[in-house]
Design brief:
The chain is mainly α. Helix content is 68%, strand content 0%.
C-alpha cells in the first residue's frame, strides 16, 4: 500500500523565510478584506507562522498534483461544505475556483444547491455525503457514510486527505467569520465612542 504524506515543509512556516508572495496571496486576508496596517490584520499576523501555515495548508490541499482526489472533486467538496456552513463568501470563492477547472455541470449543481442525492451513486456522491456528516455532525460521525467511501472506490489515503480537507474548510470558515466579526467591531467602535460623548 502506498502512503501519501500531506504536510507543509517547515521552511514554509519559518518566520525568517516567509516569502512575501505567500503573504500577498493570503486567501483569508483577501476574503475578509484585511488591509496591511489595520488592527485586525496586525492581530492576525502577530503570529505569522499561523497565517503562513494556514495558507500553506490551503495551497497543499488544493494543489492540482495532489494524488487520489481530483482538484475538481476537492473544490466541489469545499463548495458544498461552505454552503452547509452558510459561508457565502467562501462559497463564492470556491465557485470562482471551480470556474477555472473542467467540472461536470450536474456535479456542480448538486454541490452548489446542496443536493448530493441528485447524483448517481458513486465517488462524488459518497464524498459529499461524508462532507455533510463531518460538517453537520462531526462528533457523532457516521459509520455507514465512512464505509461508503471505499465502496465507491476511494482509497484509504484519499479518505484521509478528504478528512483533512473537510477539517481545513471547517477551520477556514471559522477563521473568516471571526475575522469579519473583529473587522465589523473595529469599524463600529469609533461611532460608538462618538455617541457616548
Amino acid at each position: 500500500m502506498t502512503t501519501h504524506t500531506y504536510k507543509i515543509d517547515k521552511d514554509v512556516i519559518d518566520k525568517d523565510v516567509i516569502d512575501k508572495d505567500v503573504i500577498d496571496k493570503d486567501v483569508i486576508d483577501k476574503l475578509v478584506g484585511l488591509q496591511p496596517g489595520s488592527a485586525t490584520h496586525a492581530l492576525r499576523h502577530q503570529r505569522e507562522k499561523v497565517a503562513a501555515a494556514t495558507q500553506g495548508s490551503y495551497d497543499t490541499l488544493f494543489d492540482p498534483a495532489l494524488a487520489d482526489i481530483g482538484l475538481d472533486e476537492r473544490l466541489l467538496v469545499a463548495l458544498y461544505a461552505c454552503r452547509l456552513s452558510g459561508a457565502s463568501d467562501l462559497v463564492a470563492h470556491y465557485r470562482a475556483r471551480l470556474a477555472t477547472v473542467t467540472v461536470d455541470a450536474e456535479q456542480l449543481a448538486a454541490a452548489a444547491e446542496g443536493q448530493p442525492e441528485q447524483l448517481p451513486a458513486g465517488r462524488l456522491r459518497a464524498m459529499l455525503n461524508f462532507a455533510r456528516a463531518l460538517t453537520q455532525r462531526p462528533v457523532e460521525g457516521d459509520k455507514e457514510v465512512l464505509q461508503s467511501l471505499p465502496a465507491a472506490g476511494i482509497s484509504t489515503p484519499a479518505v484521509v486527505a478528504l478528512s483533512q480537507l473537510i477539517a481545513f474548510i471547517s477551520y477556514q470558515v471559522r477563521v473568516v467569520a471571526g475575522l469579519k466579526a473583529l473587522e465589523l467591531a473595529a469599524r463600529s467602535a469609533p461611532s460608538s465612542h462618538k455617541e457616548q460623548a
